[in-house]
Amino acid sequence: MVKLKEWIDNNLKGDPIIWGIVILLSILSILVVYSATGTLAYKKMGGNTETYLIKHSSLILLSLAVMWAAHKVQYKYYAKLSLVALWISVPLLAITYLFGSNVNEASRWLTIPLINQAFQPSDLAKLALIAAVAGMLAKRQKNIKDFQNTFLPVIIWIGIICMLIAMANMSTAVLLLSTCLLLMFIGRVPMKFIMMVCLIGSLALTSAIFLGQRGSTFFSRIENFISGEEVPYQAEQSYIAIANGGVVGLGPGNSEQRNRLPHPYSDFIFAIIIEEYGLIGGATVLFLYLALLYRGMRVVAISNRPFGGLLSAGLSFALVLQAMVNMAVAVGIGPITGLPLPLLSMGGTSLLFTGISLGIILSVSRGDHEDAFPVEGNAPRKLAKVA
Amino acid sequence: MNIKKSILLRVRFAFLLVAIFAGVIFYRITHIQFVDGEKWRQKSDEVNLQYRKVNATRGNIYSMDGSLLATSLPFYRVVLDPSIAKDEVFRAGIDSLSFLLSKQFNDKSKDYYKRLISDARHTNKKYLILNRKQIGYQEKQEMMKWPIFRQGRMSGGVIFEKVEKRFYPFKALAGRTVGFLNEDNYGAGIEFSFNEYLGGENGEALFQKIAGGTWKPVHDANDIKPEDGFDIITTLDVNLQDVAESALLRQLLNKDAEFGSVIVMEVATGHIKAIANLQKNKNGYGYGEYYNYAIGGQGLTEPGSTFKLLSMMALLEEGKISLNDMIDTGNGTYKFYDRTMRDAKQGGYGKITIREAFEKSSNVGISKLVNEHFGVSPSKFLAYIEKAGIDKPIDFQIQGEGIPYFKTPGTKHWYGTTLPWMSIGYELKVTPLHTLMLYNAIANDGRMVKPMIVNSISRANKVTQEFKTEVLRKKIASDKTIKEIQSLLEGVVEHGTAKNIHNSDYKIAGKTGTAQKLINGRYTQKYYASFAGYFPADKPKYSAIIVIDSPKGFNAYGGDVSAPVFKEIADKIYAQDLKLNNVQNPRARREQFKDNDQLPFVQAGMAEELQMICNQFGISNHYKGAERWVKSSANNKSIDWKANKVDEPVVPDVTGMTLRDALYVLENKGLRVDYAGKGRVRSQSMTAGMNIPKDGIIKLTLG
Lengths: 387, 703
Known about the structure:
- By secondary structure, chain A is mainly alpha-helical.
- Helices cover 70% and strands 3% of the residues of chain A.
- Chain A folds into 2 domains: 1-72 and 242-369, no CATH class; 76-230, no CATH class.
- The model of chain A is unreliable at 375-387 (pLDDT under 50).
- Chain B is α+β, with helices and mostly antiparallel strands.
- In chain B, strand 22 (454-459) and strand 23 form a beta hairpin.
- The chains are: A mainly alpha, B alpha+beta.
- Chains A and B meet through helix 8, helix 11, helix 12 and helix 13 of A and helix 1 and helix 2 of B.
- Chain B: Keywords: Carboxypeptidase, Cell cycle, Cell division, Hydrolase, Membrane, Protease, Transmembrane, Transmembrane helix.
């Protein structure tokens, strides 16, 4: 025991509670995905259900490894890296929009040559944009009210990336824009600028709807949701799953609705969690996400520099907001979006990007890494140890 | 307030918002579980969902020359989800849509359809079958342009439910061989035997049961895509099949027979080119395909004299006789134990050579010889049958092959009379296919190939599996024996029992057979008349067998009943198949054209055909291009072919073509053709090279 603790202390740096939450959710993810992919495995793999179990488990392990690697990196480097990644994602998004493979009439996927793995450039862009915005805001904290030098570069990047994503994936774009707005709010950008962003954002989104592929789907979904006359098939099946679950649930692997819900292993995994683990399970998952957000937020309190704080806050909010939206869809508070539940849903490369996000948050939470942008002249330049 | 404090405050504010949101989610869960819980749990039982199979498109069956023998045509049932269309779309389109529906189905009025759809929309019905009548693919394409329908499934609500129907373009042609498959996956012929390939892999999709017992697909796409079936390319030749079938039918009608079968096979490859089975309809009038007597178990029968070929083969192989030895057939009767063997000719043939005994098909002669040489050890005789390879089923590609029946010496069914009767084709059972296989081996100089009917399996025009000709026995007898038997078979047609089909154009070799039918253990006055043989005898290309069961009338012998059918088929094939007409003296024909100093009137057509014709007639001709269609140009007593580019999207030049070619070329361009006169196209009303007018009519002058 002592040795284990020693090993953990030496190797798993950063907030131990974040580590704990991630590992708990990963275990739950493997359990639920295994149960939920029964139908898929039966249909595609001729009943070989272990195929998805093995594939998903190895991806989870890989994303944990990525997270570990990311938390070893001093987070000040992420400021530079994020800008590089942002420059890369622009052409990638454009290529995907034009030549990517079509899933449900929207080109979101790009196949990486050689390893033949499909990945969504929007995952990369999302991560890069949030990190970059955090960096840009941190760097300019002193003249945060300067429209031309502070606000303009930030909003141009946000505009370009959200626009490119919106052409193929409206939900992700809207969520990303909201997260950026929140980050700007936290980063002390004046409210009048944020209102301006709202205006520009809605303009950008509207134009993307007219230019892009999924505009009509997006609107019809929202329209359906607002009109509320008729419960769509997926939502109905999701409610049935939730109602079936009761307080304690049907037990692991006993879901019935997994056969009827489309994408029970991704879009509607929360409904399956409630069906199998009950209200208790659902509440636990909610609590875990809130705890994750809280710990991410705590980093803001302990870091002396705005970059670390903003980076950690931005990434935590991005992750948890998406989780909230996904769960809201499953319980019928929001229109159907098709966003996966981070950390829980099955899904190839997006798991890895989630891993990187968490790794960065952990890196900041370690507190022994140097910040990229000093704020006040009299602050100590070297290590700021926090007990 | 410093920067950090401000940031911290803002973060906490944001966290609070998220926490509240999480609270709302939690509240929602409890609401669904406790307030609406009963309603949803009930719904869970009501919503009847099921994974149901989605049928794959069945593969086609083709003849060797590419004609479609069986195909699946899509038909559609028109269903509407009337609740989907937006109000303005619905209001704008409903009138013209109901008008078009009324016109299309031609059963109910426009108002009926309008009311039907509007009512369903009001009651929020999700699935409305507009009409039970199914529509074809073309009609579906047309309908997709109609108002409301043209919005598609997601915004218009129209669903075209595909139903496939099997369609046989040649109707009953080779009906029993092409076969069928019923809903219980039972059937006959190629459809049944190759179902595994034709059927493909069915897909699966989630369906919801709705009122009225219909199943509505839940999603737009299938969950598991069905994989379409493979195509089967048979060895059948539609033209030969037609020839065989009509020749057989004529004779059956002529003789008022019970049933008849024909198989035509290519000697070298064992490819079955035609296979016909016609049986008198139950009502007594006309004939139809009901059972594959040529191949199947019910086709097993005592073959009669066609089996004498095997007896002769055994005798010759034993080396104890020569064809010119004499044999005394006496007065046409001979007693083996308690049974009397009789010859067809009253009073018998007296003393004749063994060759004559075979050619005249003397039962007494052959049975006496076999009994004399094999009586002591009948198993030796059976060893020859085994060597010839017709004692066992051959695992034919179509299921249900009859299993040959032979008695074994020493068992309780083996009597002293068995061997002599066996030697003339009684007390044993084979199908026409097995007999033909034996005759084909003789035609093929002793090499026995396995008959086959499926040449290859393909998908999307790509051959995935090809069946090669299988050699069952490299040599069923010595070369000397084979040569002698070939001469015997030619003798049968030249001056034996089938001399009525002798002709001077080409030689036929074969053997007649007339078996008395055994019904309920007694030989009756009903006959099974057959003829098996091959042609042209000096270079055999095709072998064939004709069997006709229970012909009525005075002449019920194989030579009178079945041989003429063979001749009719052979004549037609001979006339059609240029390769059979070996050019006797090409130079003589060439001289003819030299004298006239005039090239024949071949001006335009398909390169391949024209070249072949010219080569046959020994006219020198040259072609360097690659286009399929050509025009001729004379060049000092030889012909140069010039490419005629008819594939381009302009009016082609068809002058010089035969009408048949011109029609093909022009109608493929969407032009309608009007013509006058006879012969090749002399002029055309539209200039070659101009754009093709829509629905244009082109006038051709022939001459």
